[in-house]
Design goal:
alpha+beta, four-stranded mixed sheet, 8 helices
């Protein structure tokens, strides 16, 4: 199948037209409108700094249903002891920059380019992208960020500077999203870390069917620190 060159308009070809490796399209930009349309279509950007923007829709898709979250006995103890303080949308900029800078085994560089940081900070300012911060003794020691549409959360990246930090943030997020009636967390591609927490692979077609249904629900925009405190938030 061909790899599609995106037009100026924020539209995408159908994800089922992707290459076997999941590559669907090339080009376009990282505007808020295009990113939102991309996630709503079932695609996401992933590319290195020296490359053009590449858009992907892998098959199978790695996802987590909130009610299938697995929490080990040791992590339950960590959470009960309140080893960490977990917040939302308190320092999105530092979370995404730590995700960019944290060393990762087997990776010489990062796909979180300066353009990607600027794009997701714009998404955050518009209330679509959210961060989870994990603090220990006042220091940011872990976190993650992603995009929320309907009752779906599209995870992008996480980091940890101390043991169990990102896991504590992720588990807390999933538990809170479940309480808020979210139905799917997109993890994009397989990792053993997320598999241990209950994530599983589904076909692209099943993912798209879920996506279409779950995007019928209103999106929770704004500061999630306010939302999870049951304060003011907007739904669109």
């Amino acid at each position: 199948m061909p790899v599609y060159q995106l037009p100026d308009e924020p539209i995408f070809p159908h994800p089922q037209l992707a290459e076997p490796d999941g590559l669907l399209a090339i080009g376009g930009d990282l505007s808020v409108d295009r990113l939102i349309q991309g996630y709503a279509t079932g695609v996401f950007p992933w590319y290195n700094e020296e490359e053009p923007i590449l858009w992907w829709s892998p098959d199978p898709r790695f996802i987590l249903y909130p009610d299938q979250l697995k929490v080990s006995k040791s992590m339950k103890q960590v959470l009960r002891r309140k080893t960490f303080e977990i917040t939302y949308d308190q320092d999105f900029g530092q979370v995404i920059r730590n995700c960019q800078q944290i060393p990762r085994p087997g990776q010489a560089g990062t796909w979180i380019t300066p353009d990607m940081i600027a794009a997701y900070e714009a998404l955050h300012q518009e209330g679509w992208a959210h961060s989870v911060e994990v603090w220990q003794q006042g220091q940011l020691v872990g976190g993650l960020y992603g995009v929320s549409l309907g009752t779906c959360f599209f995870g992008e990246s996480m980091f940890a500077k101390v043991s169990n930090a990102s896991k504590a943030g992720f588990i807390t997020l999933i538990q809170d999203l479940k309480a808020a009636n979210f139905q799917l967390i997109d993890c994009q591609i397989y990792t053993a870390h997320l598999a241990s927490l209950g994530a599983t692979s589904i076909s692209r077609l099943t993912f798209l069917e879920h996506l279409n249904a779950f995007l019928e629900h209103q999106s929770i925009r704004g500061n999630w620190g306010d939302f999870f405190k049951k304060s003011t938030f907007s739904r669109e």
